[in-house]
Protein 1
Amino acid sequence: MPRVGILNFLEPTFADTCFPIYRSSYLITDSEVVYYENLLSGEMTLTSFCPRLSVNGALSKIEETFEFAVSDANHDSTVYITDGAFRFKVPNFW
């Protein structure tokens, strides 16, 4: 799969004002809530970007894949998200 662009969540070197934002996940086990909010690794790969060519043309389309790992506060439990993907259409014209 060709890579159009890649963003390392821990080292986003190409943009000094960009950083990953993720929602803290949690798991309830035996009446205990465990929060997974420590980002250990991750990246997002831009696989396709088709810009909108005119105001009346087809919408822009962005496709990306992602993966990341988060751990609990004690770093004794880790959750791995792999093979994530999304695609969305953008109505803006650049």
Note: Residues 64 and 86 are 6 Å apart (CA to CA).
Protein 2
Amino acid sequence: MMAVYLFALILGGGLLLLSLLGGEGGDVDVGDLELDGLGDAGDLGSEGGDASASKIFSLRSLIYAVFGFGATGALLTTLGLPRPVTLGGAIVTGLLAGAMVSATFGYLHRTESGTKLGDEALLGLTGRVVLPIERERPGAVVVIRGDRRLRLRALPHSSGEGEPAGWDRVLVVEVVDGVARVAPLEEDRLLDS
């Protein structure tokens, strides 16, 4: 049985190493292989952000499961534990490793954690003024993007009518040098369009 564990350890470890060395957008990123138009093999389940059981069987999860199975089996065999205990421990550890990786990447994908927002991702967001904005001195606004609340430095955009100190809700029109240029959000205008 040790040969099976070593094979799984080498196969899973090799694919894991290729995935890590491939980096973001790398040619050998086996965690994100495209398979015959199925899209991201890391997301072979149903579409959307749900945590369906089919997402556990992604290529990325399978690689971690094989590695966890092989590593645990080889370790427990080396420690001299009985064959049924070793096999059971290897199977449980492999399944847990695959499920944990699937859950972790699913969470990161749903919440967009770890992604760096570009200025263009902020355009069109609405928010509330939390520090009054003046014509020459930036204030602050809070916008919500996905599950994240972002606090942005803000100056009035040239299209904004009225005195910025009286604005409560605003729309991000552009971002210049990390400072949001905002205009007042008028409910009447939203209803008319």
Note: The CA atoms of residues 111 and 146 lie 7 Å apart.
Protein 3
Amino acid sequence: MGYDTSHHPVDVDLITRRLVPYILGMGEIDDLVADVVRISKVRARANAWGIGTSRYMTEHATEFPADLLVWGRPFFITTEGTTEIAAAIDRYLAADPDDVDFIAAEMLDVLDPKLVGLVQPSENDKVLTDVAIGSEARRNMDLLRVAVHNLTSGKPVQLGGADTAPPRELLEREAIWVMTKFAADLRPGWMDRGHVWPSGWSAAAKVRLGDVFEAPHALLGHLRALDLEFFAHNGIVENYMVGAMVPADRVEEFVGALRANEAALINTWGDSSEFAQVSFQKLREAAEDALHRGLAFCEATEIYSGFSGVMN
């Protein structure tokens, strides 16, 4: 079974303090949406540099770890080490779109100073307006807010066109994934693909990663007071979901278990060990970033999709 998987440092406080109250009909998220718009444009420009670099290296028959630097880490980051990667993420998160070319040039210089001035970012004909980006970012959050409002009456939620959904079913199935997706628009995670996600990997390799996995109920906050059966598992079982979560106070244990079981995890798929090495690095870097920031960690599917061009 294959998914578009991803690994996320997760700010649980942001979700429970800002996103949950909004869904419950309290407060606004206009400031967060504005940040999503800016960061989305930063991500798009940074990824254009990553894709441009990959194409240049391919054209010149030069080895380039695209699975890590383009389809793995958030933005376009070529530095190494937890502190250095975190610093690069922070620079991108604080940047305006016009600042990205300067940051990307520094990343090229780290990779190979000769590339600066030679590599050009890829051009995307599809340029969305700020209004369109913002509307898309908040659309599912607004649908959940309407669903809460409609719970008592049971009135279906209009999804668009003629499509509707019962409010209870919409909240139960989508709440955790939608909030995590919105949070990931503010703090991108690491993207991967195929059969790689930590809870499944741990089971396949028959190793214990500290027994730290739990279902992501902690992301629900006061939504848990509603009489609903939320879709939450301590692993990935289908598309468009959040799987296992590691609470912030157990991420250090999780990172230690990853490091201790690196060889067993990488060797799980035999001939795919090279692919597994890169995937393990992505997972480890995401977990180490969560530890560095004092955040929780979670696995998810379809937050990103390389096939669909949805990048981190």
Note: The longest strand covers residues 5-10.
